[in-house]
Amino acid sequence: MFRTTSHPGRRRIAAAGVVAIASTLVLAGCGRAEGGGAGGGDAGGGEAIDDSPATGTVEVWAMGNEGEVLGDLAAQFEEENPDVTIEVTAVPWESAHDRIATSIAGGETPDVTMLGTTWVGEFAATGAFEPTPEGLVDSASFFPGSWDTTIVDDVAYGVPWYVDTRVLYYRTDLAEAAGVEAPTTWDEYAEFAAALKDGGAASGVSLPPGGFDSWQYVAPLAWQQGGDILAEDGETFTLDSPEWHEAFEFYAGFFEDGVSEPVRLEGGEIEQKFISGEVGSFFSGPFHVSLLREQGGEDFADRFAVSMVPGADTRTSFTGGGNLAVFDDSENRDAAWKFVRWLSQPETQVAWYDISTDLPSVEAAWEDPTFAEDPYLSVFGEQLRDSKAPPSIPTWAQVSAVIDQELEKVTRGETSVDDALATVQQQAESIGTGQ
């Protein structure tokens, strides 16, 4: 499973309950007054943050592995700012979504929290976050797709901390034996996967047959043709457009032709089947590079490679990752933002990769040899320049769940693409954008 689904969205924890909490907060009048926004994302969150040393205590919530190891990096910030203390609380991903919602509802929030990128719209709608202060960071220094994940109604809330994107992993030895090269177009992709299947792989490409977060696999196919989730007005869903029809048809074709087995492979399974040759290719994030090297043995590194995703008009992939946001009622607002700004510096992001293996959200960090000279990571850097995230709307978890559900019906032959997308569009319109 793609790692960014573990960070921003692997768990759609009690989505209905959390959305209800968020809605209650909005109705209760917690929202920020109009006009306090940050425009394109560089400005508008109140007083600018100066360059004086940070002081006091900053409480930070971070999820998963990031929560376990952030203290190592925070110690460097404390050395540079002797009068500040960074208190990191590690929050399991399984409970993070509900915990943030509950803390907002109860008025007991930390100073800073890590956010999955697909959560920003939902929680920003509560008015709980301060927009990014003017001049804190330069939005142009981040990958565009990553910076877009902070924007809600033209206002930036926080900054991107690290990024993930999906590329194509493939067995070079199987491809060579089949006489095919890494695909760049849809036609080449279909031929490539079929050739690996004909060469003995059970799945020429392993794809989830719908279900949880499978929208992350099919949405890029619509984006690559110029399609989108919302129209330019930011309010009208376009999930039954010709581009979405083409995306669903193309995706379902891998199952109809028997090129992909209709089985969802979870963590642990995909690595072993790829190493054994049962899976010829799959899409995933950067964390799989080290997993495959470790589990495949010393020689396996020479038998697989990564490539940008094949595409239509573009080669757009999905982007996710983790953002950092400061709560509006932070008790140490200036120091909180100074810590967030420090985490956004290129040299800090390179150091963070060494600790966490999280990819930098700031483009300049990718000039470091750690990324620029690595045959795997450099491909991720290239892919991040053509990557996209879903819109930051409060209801995205509900809407995407409908896409997941209907895509599975299509791949299993239980409904047509026309009927599936009609249902997706109708239910999306009924759910609304929550804005």
Automatic annotation (TrEMBL):
Keyword Phosphoprotein: no
Matching PROSITE patterns: PROKAR_LIPOPROTEIN
Keywords: Signal, Transport
Record carries keyword Transport: yes
Signal peptide as annotated in the record: none
Domain of life: Bacteria
SUPFAM superfamilies: Periplasmic binding protein-like II
Coiled coil segments of this chain: none
Spans through the membrane: none
Listed Pfam families: SBP_bac_1
Entry's family note: Belongs to the bacterial solute-binding protein 1 family.
Protein name as it appears in the record: Extracellular solute-binding protein
Organism: Microbacterium marinilacus
